[in-house]
Amino acid sequence: MKYDVVIGLEIHAELSTQSKIFCGCAQQFGAETNSLCCAGCSSFPGALPLLNKRAMEYAVIAGLCLNCKINSYSAFDRKNYFYPDLPKAYQVSQFFYPICSDGYLEVKGKKIRINRIHVEEDAGKLIHDEYLGVSLADYNRGGVPLIEIVTEPDITSAEEASEFAEMVAYNLRYAGVCDAKMEEGSLRCDVNISLKPQGSKELGVRAEIKNLNSFKSIERAIEYEIKRQSEILDRGEKVKQETRRFNDNNGRTIPMRSKEEAEDYRYFPDPDIPAILFTEEQLKEIAKKVPLLPQQRFDIYTNQYGLPPADAKLLLTKKDYSDFYNESVKIYNNYKDTASLFIVELFRLINDYGYDGEFKFTPAQFAKLVKMLDDGKITKAAQKAILGYMFNEGKDPEDIAKERGLIIENDIEAVQKAIAEVIAENPKAVEQYKSGIEKVFGFLMGQTARKVGKSASPSIIREYLIKALQD
Question: What is the pTM of this model?
Fold first, then answer.
C-alpha cells in the first residue's frame, strides 16, 4: 500500500542571553558539572523567579524572523511531570498564552505553517551510564531560556523537514538570538511523524522522535521511521503512539516511553510570574533590531547584484561574511568582482589560517583593493598577494602595494618596446592572428606581459598590442 507522510516539528532553541531565564546564573556551554546553579534554578524552597527581560525580547525577534503574529499578552504556566531533569517536578513554560503564533517559512516555494512559539526554561541534562547502570544529572542547563517552535503537520518528506530546520537555524543565527549549535545542544529538534493511506483525510497514529541534534540525523531518523511504520501497516498491525529515540550509530529509532497527552502533564498558571504585556511601541522598537534575513539577502544578491545563486549562498554562510560584503559594496559597487575576491581568495585564506570572528582589515580597505585592480594599479596576481598581507598584517592595500613594489607604473615606452620585440620574435603567430585566428592573441599577450613585468597593467598591454597588430 502507498502512504502519505505527515510530519510536524518541535524545534527547541536556546536563547543567547548571558544569564538564565528566572535567575542570575550564567549560561555557558562546557562549564564544570553543576557549577552554574543557584537556589532559584535548583528549586530550593522559597526561591522566587525573576524574569529575564532580554529573553522575552529575543523571543519576539525570533517570532518576527519566522513571520509570526506577536501576542502582546502572554503568560507562564507550570507543566507538571515527574522526571529528574528538573528537580522541582515541573517546568515553567507557556501553554495557554504563548508569545507568538500563526507564523510560517517557505521552503522551495512551499509555505510551512508555524502554529506557535512559546518560551520556557530548559531542563537539566541526564547522562545515562549503561556500563555502571546509573544515571547522572547536570543541572547547568536547567533554567536556560528556550523557545519551542511548533509547526503544523505540513511537512511531507525527510528532506523538507531538514531544510525547514536548517532555515530556522539560519534565521535565528542572523537575528543573533540563538547560536544554533546543534553539536552543543543549543538547537534540538523533535519530530512527530505518522503515515496514512494515500489520499486519506484521517491522520495516522504518530510517533515522536526526541532530541535530534543534526540536520542529517533529522533526515535519517525520518527515513527510518517511514520504513518502520510502513512495514507495520503493511502487516495489518497498528502503529503505537510513543516517544522514540534515534540511534545515530545504527540509524534506527528505539522506544523510550509511551506517549503522554497534554492532559497528562497537568498544566496550570504559574502563580509566581506575572503575565507579560508588550505595548505597540515596545514591539516596534524590538522590530527595528531584526536584520535582513538570509532569504532577503539572497534575493538582493541574485536579483539586484546579479550574483550566481551558488556565490550568493557562499556569502550567506555566516552573517559576518554577508555583513562584511554588504559594507564593502556600499563603498565600491563592483558586486561581482567583490564577491569573487571574497569567495575565491578570502575563503582560501580563512581555510588556511582560520577565522576568529573578525578580520584585520576593514570593508573599506577590501573595497579599495577591488578598485585598485579595476583602475589598473595592480595585477590580478598582485591583488591576491596584497590580500594575503592584509589578512595577516591588517595594513592598507595601497601601502602594502607601494612597500612591496606591486604598483603598476604604466610605462608606455616599455610596453611599446616589449610589443615590438614580441612581434619580431613571433612572426608566425602574428601572421595567424592577422589571418583571423584570434586565439593566438592570448599567446602574444602573455609573451608581452612577461617582458613588461610590473611596468604596465594588462589593460594597457592589451590596448597597445591590438594597435600594433592592426598596423
Answer: 0.85
**Extents of the domains making up the chain:** 3-281, 294-403, 412-470
Which residue in 69, 127, 128 sits closest to 98, CA to CA? Answer: 69
Q: Which CATH architecture has domain 412-470?
A: Orthogonal Bundle (1.10)
pLDDT tens-digit readout, 239-288: 999 999 999 999 999 998 765 554 567 889 999 999 999 999 999 999 99
Radius of gyration of the chain (CA): 30
Strands 242-247 and 207-212 turn out to be parallel
The C-alpha atoms of residue 270 and residue 249 are separated, in whole angstroms, by: 41
All 3 cell numbers of residue 130? Answer: 549503561
Which residues fall within 8 angstroms of residue 67, CB to CB, at 6 or more apart? 103, 104, 105, 114
Task: State the CB neighbour count (10 A cutoff) for residue 227.
Answer: 11
Cite the beta strand spans of 171-275 per DSSP E.
187-197, 207-212, 242-247, 252-258, 268-269
Question: Which residue, among 14, 22, 30, has the nearest Cα to 273 in the 3D structure?
Answer: 22
The answer to whether 92 touches 78, Cβ cutoff 8 Å, is: yes
Please state, in angstroms and rounded to a whole number, the distance separating the CA atoms of residues 249 and 261. 30
Q: Could you tell me the three cell numbers for 224?
A: 527510518
